[in-house]
Design brief:
This protein is α+β, with helices and mostly antiparallel strands and 630 residues long. 40% of the residues lie in helices and 15% in strands. It has helices at 155-170, 177-180, 183-188, 192-201, 225-236, 304-345, 351-356, 363-373, 380-384, 391-401, 405-408, 410-416, 426-450, 454-458, 461-474, 490-504, 506-512, 514-519, 541-547, 551-565, 585-610, and strands at 2-10, 21-28, 32-34, 46-53, 60-68, 76-86, 94-104, 109-113, 128-129, 138-139, 209-210, 240-244, 255-256, 259-260, 267-272, 278-284, 297-298. Helix 1 packs antiparallel against helix 20. Mean pLDDT is 90; it is low at 118-124 and 169-180. It is found in: Cytoplasm.
């Protein structure tokens, strides 16, 4: 008995409405009531109803809804249903939220549960697929059309994405570089300090590490004792760094339109100057090979074109590992593993489902599209990169085989690489601040609301199955690389969840947004090389130009970097999800504190950047999407 106010909220994008009628039921602990309501959901509208019920429903458990079609069958996107309960024995009205955030199709009855209830098994259908052996499993979809409707782009996103593809291809030869890039990229790409800066704060800040010994592959030839002394001196004072691209060694280069391409596996040794500049000391383009001459070492004192060509080779290798390892594997594919496991193992009522699912928005479709157009046979990688034609898949397999849990937990990864405490490492600073905010303000807050202690975590069978699904199934048995198969404490769970969210938001921002800035000026990071790496120091301008990509390859590179890093017009920022899965005041307070800390960090980074010659902006909270959508 009592009065119930009901509000039905429909999505605000194209085709979210429905011409069909909708029927509602309220289901309580004692009984259920079929509401005499028939309405047509309208796009972006909230339908409000008020009913007085004579029967005693008891505490509300869930809402049932059914879409009734006559002639036309069309889907309806329901955001959520809110019910306000007012009974005689209540001092004040009770508000209960029933999240939906999915397409309602057919004429079956759907049950929406409140987040105030105990977990209830309601796993959404989703299956695994082996796209290529040796890689993480993917969602079972050959094309985006095979995905369930709830995993697809909404119509406005689809229109924007397809339009952007056409715009990028049509205008790829007419870019005004002075408008697209910081002037410094065009003007300073040849400078050693600018070359070094990119390994700290550029498009790919994941390759650099502090040296703990001289690499065994770095063979110092007779007569280069001074170089050996300089390297050892920098090593002793902790100022020697390296970027090793050995993962590329032995990869078969691509053949593009009948023309063989070439690939190197370089090693670069850097020194950190007192002013924070990272300067290259020596470049080795290929590792030593038994039975072959010792590979030459290229130095800053070499002829300018010789030294420049060596750096160009390094940046070509850096682009390959950036796109395949740091970007595709360690953000896109990992986020997809988390997403599929979440859909398979966690019910829609589970608090961890509600915490994570906003961070998977559009990820399944963007990854499926990448597998059909970017890294597929005949795709963009095959057309323009020297690792295409199958080499890129071998690189992905190698990178997957050495992928560790610690490498995805950024504070651990940065510590392992010896990059903590470097004032000029802006990426490192921003990563640590963001990780701490996500962990302490957001994840810990939600987890502690729903798990009173470690035993609650240990006894949550859905959660433990989700953990095993990721490590043993999605990653093909990755426990030997540090991935957990169970959670024994709230602390372990919070650490893992922070990794999932950070991977799907901030880290993707760090390795995605810089593509346009650093790769549109093709000489700074060419996508392919058309001549073999130099084996002598006799380099001419003609040799450099003959090594660089052809015009059409450069145009495709420009178009793709624009497409893959442009600002999304319908983006959802980190900490500001459109979906409202948690309705309780405590959960809302956690999200509010998270947003406050993100705003504080935003102001800190803006203030810091004002004093910098080259601002680092990729981890500004106002530029980080809540999920991987591009």
């Amino acid at each position: 008995m009592g009065r119930y106010r009901v509000r039905v909220d429909t999505g605000n994008f194209v085709f979210a409405a429905s011409a069909n009628q909708v029927q509602l039921w309220l289901v309580g602990h004692h009984s259920e009531a079929k509401l005499g309501l028939w309405f047509h959901p309208a796009r972006g509208q909230m339908e409000d109803f008020e009913v007085d019920l004579k029967e005693d429903l008891g505490p509300l458990l869930f809402v049932k809804l059914q879409k009734i079609h006559l002639l036309l069958k069309d889907a309806w996107f329901c955001n959520h249903i809110t019910v306000w309960v007012s009974e005689k024995n209540m001092e004040e009205e009770q508000e209960i939220l029933f999240p939906c955030y999915r397409w309602v199709q057919g004429d079956g009855i759907i049950c929406l549960f409140s987040d105030l209830l105990i977990f209830h098994s309601m796993v959404l259908p989703s299956s695994w697929n082996t796209w290529r052996k040796g890689l993480p499993l993917t969602v079972d979809a050959m094309t985006e059309k095979d995905l369930p409707l709830d995993m697809r782009f909404h119509e406005d996103k689809k229109i924007d994405f397809v339009g952007a593809e056409l715009q990028g291809i049509e205008s790829s030869g007419s870019y005004d570089l002075s408008l697209l890039l910081p002037e410094r990229v065009c003007e300073s790409w040849k400078d050693d300090d600018f070359f070094g800066y990119q390994f700290l704060n550029g498009a790919n800040p994941t390759m650099l590490r502090r040296s703990t010994s001289l690499p065994t592959r770095l063979v110092i030839p007779p007569g280069a004792e001074e170089l050996q002394t300089q390297l050892e001196r920098k090593l002793q004072v902790g100022c020697l760094f390296e970027a090793d691209f050995s993962l590329l060694d032995g990869i078969q280069p691509n053949v593009i339109q009948g023309e063989r391409q070439y690939l190197a596996a370089p090693l670069v040794m850097f020194k950190m100057e007192p002013d924070g500049k990272l300067l290259p000391m020596v470049i080795q383009l290929q590792p030593p090979c038994s039975g072959s001459p010792v590979p030459p070492l290229f130095l800053p004192s070499d002829p300018s074109l010789t030294w420049l060509l060596a750096k160009i080779w390094v940046k070509n290798s850096d682009l390959q590992l950036h796109e395949l390892q740091a970007h595709l594997l360690k953000t896109h594919l990992m986020a997809e593993v988390f997403a599929v496991a979440t859909m398979r193992c966690l019910s829609g009522m589970h608090p961890i489902f509600k915490l994570l699912v906003p961070h998977f928005r559009y990820t399944m479709e963007i990854n499926t599209r990448a597998r059909t157009s970017l890294i597929s046979e005949g795709g963009i990688f095959d057309q323009v990169t020297n690792t295409g034609g199958g080499g890129h898949l071998d690189i992905l397999r190698r990178a997957t085989a050495c992928l560790t849990y610690r490498s995805l937990c950024l504070p651990n990864d940065l510590a392992d690489r010896g990059l903590l405490g470097i004032p000029s490492a802006l990426y490192v600073h921003d990563v640590l601040r963001l990780w701490d905010i996500i962990f302490s303000r957001y994840v810990q807050g939600i987890v502690h609301l729903h798990y009173s202690g470690d035993k609650d975590v240990q006894d949550d069978s859905e959660l433990q199955a989700w953990c095993r699904e990721i490590t043993e199934i999605g990653l093909g048995g990755a426990q030997d690389r540090g991935f957990p198969v169970s959670f024994k404490s709230r602390a372990e769970l919070c650490h893992f969840l922070t990794m999932c969210i950070f991977t799907s938001s901030a880290q993707h921002s760090a390795v995605s947004q810089g593509q346009q800035d650093w790769y549109t000026w093709v000489p700074n990071a060419p996508d392919t090389m058309r001549q073999p790496p130099p084996t002598t120091k006799d380099v001419t301008l003609e040799m450099v130009m003959a090594t660089m990509p052809k015009v059409y390859q450069s145009c495709l590179q420009i178009a793709m970097t624009w497409l893959l890093s442009r600002v999304q017009p319908n983006r959802v920022l980190l900490g500001y999800p459109k979906e409202e899965y948690f309705s309780g005041p405590e959960s809302k307070a956690v999200l509010s504190r998270f947003q406050e800390d993100l705003d504080i960090l935003e102001r800190e980074i803006v203030a810091r950047n004002e004093g910098l010659d080259l601002p680092y902006e990729y981890l500004l909270p106002s530029r980080i999407e809540n999920s991987i959508t591009i």
